[in-house]
Structures are given as C-alpha cells and as structure tokens.
Design a protein that fits this description.
Number of helices: 13
Strand order of the largest sheet: 1-2
Radius of gyration: 21 Å
Structural class: mainly alpha
Shape: elongated
Strand content: under 5%
Distance between the termini: 49 Å
Helix content: 55-70%
Number of strands: 4
Largest sheet: 2 strands, antiparallel
C-alpha cells in the first residue's frame, strides 16, 4: 500500500522481491506497477519516484515468451507493451506473430499501427522519410493495395499526414508526401488514385 501511495521505486521493488508469488498473473503485476508510477522522476529524501522508464527497464529483463505463455498467447505481450507505452515495439512484435490458425497477425498489426500513428503515440518520421516499424508496415500494406484498390491505399497513407499551418507544403515534404509519391509510382494512375478521395485540407 505504501508503494502505491508514495510511488516509491525501492518500496515497489522490495515488495516484489519479498513476495515473489503474490501476483499470480501478469495482469495483476502490471496493475500494481502501473499504480506506483509517477510522472515526476525526482527524488525526495531517501525516496525515488517510480516512472514508466523503470517499468520498461524491468519488463525488458524477461523474454517475450515469459509474458505470452511461451508464445501460446502473443496478444498478452502486446498488451504488456501497450500498457508500458512501448508502442513501436508492440506493433513490431505483433506483426511477427501467428494466431491459433497459424495465420500471421499482419492485418491486426497494420491497424494497430494506424491507430497509434493517428493518435500521435507514434511519429511517422521526419521530412520525407518513414522512421520506425509501425509507419513502414502501414505504408507497405497500402502499397500492397496499390493496383487493386488505389483509393483505399491512399486512405491508409493519410494516417501519415500531420497537418500544420502550411498544409500544402507540409503534405509534400513529409512522410505522407514521400509515401504518396511511392504509391503513384506503383499505380501510374493519377486519376484513379485521387478520384473520390478526401482532399488534404479535410
């Protein structure tokens, strides 16, 4: 109780060390550690605030198999990564896993990336370059639709667009602009690509 109220790093770690079997599930463990987290990382006297960085470092001590029941439930580890704000890592891990039907979670990873980028939790990149696994997997999925569904492909790429005061300029010189140019190269059909799609100033 003291660890949760005080947000004290040493108290939380001492509790885990003394009562190793107290939390029977990873969900309970995450609830405890998330309850201890404080935004301020400063120290007061002998107390050090427990931060999200401390939680991320602790979670990294164990392999993904530890959190996913030896890979049988990969979504458990995805939840752990999301709760600990390791968003890029969550998308990357999910894209590499298979479900109970031995089918890759590729589509789920694409839409997780879409949601995280759209909400600003993952940055698409700088200037015209995509940076990170999440923006790249989103763009690759859009490119795979280029010939059959070019307008839908453009809608997926729109998640990479971050409006600024100069929308026209920011669209051209951005990860979104670079991805759209790559899409145009693949389709070679400007009219079909832009007919019926939402304009950049929406």
């Amino acid at each position: 109780l003291y660890a949760i109220i005080a947000g004290d790093k040493r108290a939380a770690e001492r509790f885990d060390a003394e009562f190793k079997s107290f939390f029977s599930t990873i969900e309970d463990f995450m609830w405890f550690r998330l309850s201890v987290i404080r935004k301020d990382s400063g120290s007061s006297g002998s107390s050090e605030a427990y931060t999200i960085g401390h939680l991320q470092a602790h979670l990294s001590l164990f392999s993904p198999a530890y959190y996913s029941r030896n890979g049988r439930e990969p979504l458990l580890y995805v939840i752990v990564l999301l709760l600990s704000q390791q968003f890029e890592k969550a998308v990357e891990y999910l894209s590499e896993q298979k479900n109970e039907h031995a089918t890759m979670y590729r589509l789920e990873a694409v839409h997780l990336a879409l949601a995280l980028i759209h909400s600003g939790l993952i940055q698409a990149g700088t200037e015209e370059d995509l940076q990170g696994h999440a923006p790249q997997i989103l763009a690759d999925f859009a490119y795979s639709l280029a010939l059959q569904e070019p307008a839908i492909a453009l809608e997926y790429l729109y998640a990479l667009y971050v409006p600024t005061s100069n929308q026209a300029s920011s669209a051209l010189h951005s990860p979104f602009g670079g991805a759209v140019r790559a899409l145009l190269v693949r389709t070679m059909n400007v009219e079909q690509l832009f007919t019926g799609t939402v304009p950049l100033g929406r």
